[in-house]
């Protein structure tokens, strides 16, 4: 019985410490705020490596199915250098691309880069992916129905997952896919340093077909030099 007061005092101390720990816990950041912070981190990075892939794309549908390369983030003159894979009039090809602002140079069945109007191929200008106002990062703050969705993994990264929806017009403007209508489901993966690492978009990219595009972004701020050929 003599030990009872001491035991009660110890139990009270544990409860008090637990209460203090609870009070000190950082409040959860709303997912919309996390997306805005990830946009700011992307826009400030200056450079990033992009890897775009797809699945469930009809084999003969015109459009981009993959892209891989380096991007320079700039509101005045965004840039891209890498490859784009797509289908034009039923013919699939992987093309070397340098895009600087509104101007694109392609190696399209030619040994040298040639200036090409991408609109004639109904292809997106990949440099525009890196325009903070209208590019990839702009999707983050235009996402609706935003909700936290736990965690996911990409390679060695454990990511915070945030799900939401995107208007079809945003997809058409940026990727030249879809008809500008409908709604696309999007799932973002964000690192603990606020970098957007992955984005998965699913919806009516093609008539009567739901396809999925997967975007991976790495090497924020790594040195990149992109010049006109």
Q: What keyword list fits this structure?
A:
229 residues; alpha+beta; eleven-stranded antiparallel sheet; 11 strands; globular
What does this structure look like?
- It is a single chain.
- Helix 2 packs antiparallel against helix 3 (136-142).
- The protein is 22% helix and 43% strand.
- It starts with a helix and ends in an 11-residue tail after the last strand.
- The model is unreliable at 1-21 (pLDDT under 50).
- The chain is α+β, with helices and mostly antiparallel strands and 229 residues long.
- The protein is built from four helices and eleven strands.
- An eleven-stranded antiparallel sheet has the order 6-5-4-3-2-1-11-10-9-8-7.
- It is globular.
- The protein has helices spanning 4-24, 31-45, 136-142, 168-175; strands at 47-55, 63-72, 79-88, 91-100, 103-107, 114-116, 144-154, 157-167, 183-190, 196-206, 209-218.
- A hairpin with a 2-residue loop joins strand 4 (91-100) and strand 5.
In percent, how helical is the residue content? 10-25%
Query: What is the 3D shape?
Result: globular
Strand % is 35-45%
Low-confidence stretches: 1-21
Terminal Cα separation, in Å? 89 Å
Round the mean pLDDT to the nearest integer and report it.
88
Order of helices and strands: HHEEEEEEHEEHEEE
> What is the radius of gyration?
23 Å
Strand order of the largest sheet: 6-5-4-3-2-1-11-10-9-8-7
Largest sheet: 11 strands, antiparallel
* Secondary structural class: alpha+beta
Q: How many beta-strand runs? A: 11
Q: Please, how many helices?
A: 4
Précis, in short:
The chain is of the alpha+beta class.
């Amino acid at each position: 019985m003599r030990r009872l007061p001491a035991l009660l005092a110890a139990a009270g101390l544990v409860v008090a410490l637990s209460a203090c720990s609870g009070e000190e816990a950082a409040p959860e950041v709303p997912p919309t705020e996390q997306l805005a912070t990830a946009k700011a981190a992307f826009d400030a990075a200056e450079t990033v490596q992009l890897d775009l892939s797809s699945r469930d794309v009809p084999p003969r549908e015109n459009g981009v199915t993959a892209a891989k390369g380096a991007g320079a983030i700039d509101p005045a003159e965004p840039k891209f250098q890498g490859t784009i894979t797509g289908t034009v009039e039923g013919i699939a090809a992987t093309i070397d691309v340098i895009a600087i602002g509104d101007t694109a140079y392609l190696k399209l069945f030619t040994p040298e880069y040639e200036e090409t109007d991408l609109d004639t191929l109904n292809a997106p200008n990949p440099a525009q992916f890196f325009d903070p106002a209208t590019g990839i990062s702009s999707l983050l703050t235009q996402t609706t129905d935003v909700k936290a969705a736990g965690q996911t993994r990409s390679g060695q990264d454990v990511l915070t997952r945030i799900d939401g929806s995107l208007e079809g017009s945003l997809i058409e403007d940026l990727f030249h896919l879809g008809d500008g209508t409908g709604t696309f489901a999007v799932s973002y993966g964000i690192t603990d340093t606020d970098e957007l690492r992955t984005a998965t978009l699913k919806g009516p990219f093609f008539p009567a077909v739901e396809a999925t595009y997967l975007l991976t972004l790495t090497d924020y701020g790594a040195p990149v030099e992109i010049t006109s050929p």
